[in-house]
Specification:
Length: about 210
């Protein structure tokens, strides 16, 4: 099964991606995670990406498309994947369709996780992540409930950057909802529910 997750920053794509990976034995491809790992490792790619990410701007299409193409060609991606945070522009969406065509594969569903903007701002400013296992918690947590690792706030979850990320989402990424609707692949779910309820709504469509 090949899936794309669409939705604003903070809509809960990462949380749903985890559940999908655990349930369906597919790989999680998060461009945000790949880019953050490159920044941390100080690779040339990371150095190029960091200033865009800190400002809440998109990393150039050519860079991100190259990353995803490489990742899709790795062997484990053959069993299926969930793309999280990609595509984010029309150019990326078209490149993905073309690349999958060439590999003789295709998207089964594009799942749009929908959440109102007020909820997003509130969620991102409270979001805390586990450095060790990636658990996504809130400001109330003192250490990770899964592995007891330390929690931290992401650099780009500050109010100014959050505002810009939302603007970029509205302008560049939200039109992809229409793109996948036109391709008859779109599934819309209400993201303003308990994560297990969101997941149940997704499963009702992809594995009824
Ligand atoms: P979120 O969905 O919470 O904004 P991500 O982890 O998906 O966070 O992305 C963090 C940042 O990484 C983005 O603000 C952007 O700078 C960069 N990024 C991630 N994916 C892409 C992409 N597909 N195209 C361009 N930039 C990207
Ligand atoms: Zn943890």
């Amino acid at each position: 099964m090949n899936l794309v997750l669409l939705g604003a920053p903070g809509a809960g794509k990462g949380t749903q991606a985890k559940k999908l990976v655990d349930t369906y034995d597919i790989v999680h491809i998060s461009t945000g995670n790949i880019l953050r790992a490159s920044v941390k490792a100080g690779t040339p790619l990371g150095l190029e990406a960091q200033s865009y990410m800190d400002a809440g701007e998109l990393v150039p299409d050519s860079v991100v498309i190259g990353l995803v193409k490489e990742r899709l060609q790795e062997e484990d991606a053959e069993k299926g994947f969930v793309l999280d945070g990609f595509p984010r522009t029309a150019t990326q969406a078209v490149a993905l369709t073309t690349e999958l065509d060439e590999l003789g594969r295709g998207i089964d569903y594009a799942i749009a996780v929908e959440v109102a903007p007020e909820v997003i701002v509130e969620r991102l400013s409270n979001r805390q992540l586990c450095k060790a296992c990636g658990y996504i918690g809130t400001k109330g947590d003192t250490s990770c409930p899964v592995c007891s690792g330390p929690l931290h706030q992401r650099d780009d979850d500050n109010p100014d950057t959050v505002r810009n990320r939302l603007e970029v989402y509205t302008k560049s990424t939200s039109p992809l909802i229409d793109y996948y609707h036109g391709a008859d692949l779109l599934v819309e779910v209400n993201g303003d529910q308990d994560p297990d309820e969101v997941f149940a709504d997704i499963q009702a469509v992809i594995a009824p």
